[in-house]
User: What shape does this take?
Amino acid sequence: MNAKNNHTYRRLNRYRRWVQALSLLLFVAVPVLNGSGIHAIVGTLYSISIGELDMADPVMVLQTILLTREIYLPLLLAAVVPVVIAWLFGRVFCSWVCPQNTLSEWIDAVQQRFFPKRWKREHHFKFGRNPSAVWYWLIFTALLLITVILGLPLLSYVSAPGIITSFLSQAILGLGVGAEIVLVLAIFAIEAALFRRFWCKYACPVGAGLALFQGRRSLRVQFNTEMCDCKPGTAPCYAVCPLHLAPKEIETLYPYCFNCGLCVAFCENAGHALTFGFGAAGSQGGASRNFEKKPFQLIQVSRHK
Assistant: This one.
């Protein structure tokens, strides 16, 4: 099949948007089912149990180990599935499941529809470079150090996926709303007014924790210079990247890129120079309460008693 007529990545992004919506609906349905006495699925994006399968955010697992100074095997096993997914496919949790990113993309779509002039200003093409990974890891390291020094579950307070899904659970179950939701609202406000997508790009500990397990053999954006038909010195794919990264600069694209595939889908309509592939090929010529069981417990923000 001719590469230029192959719309694989466009279809992939369509599926991604469906998964985003269904994931958000899932975390609305879970507390509704729990409140009705159905506990087949219990939890939030801090940790979740599906039948006998327990899964936990690796960052929450790390936080628990740091604060308790104990290694609990069932807790480590709960992080296996997220770690394996990150090792194979990179930070796809962020682009496919995370409600913070989903809502940010929806807000961006609303802005494009109703405030097109502002949207064009923000998405106007300008050639850029990827920031140094040093800043990414410095912020994550600082959060870990503060957590240990203060002896508080700080990472729980700044985990937007956990906060959003816990907020939905607590509100639906009538358990009140935690003050942590203020952080999420502040992130949306700051991104809308000042710094577009700064949280996902620089500060989210959940994304950083998953990026730790992304290796040189994981799924990555790859760039073939011979296939690129852009004018010299230009990169329109930069404008479609939600994090304002430079996809052609693949040597510095990670750990920031979360493999949403928007740049690849955009390029699919042109020279097909950007693709996905496994390997580091360079440019080529807190959980909701389970009322009946409690398999393990993370140190996290929760109002459930």
Observations:
- The chain has one domain: 3-278.
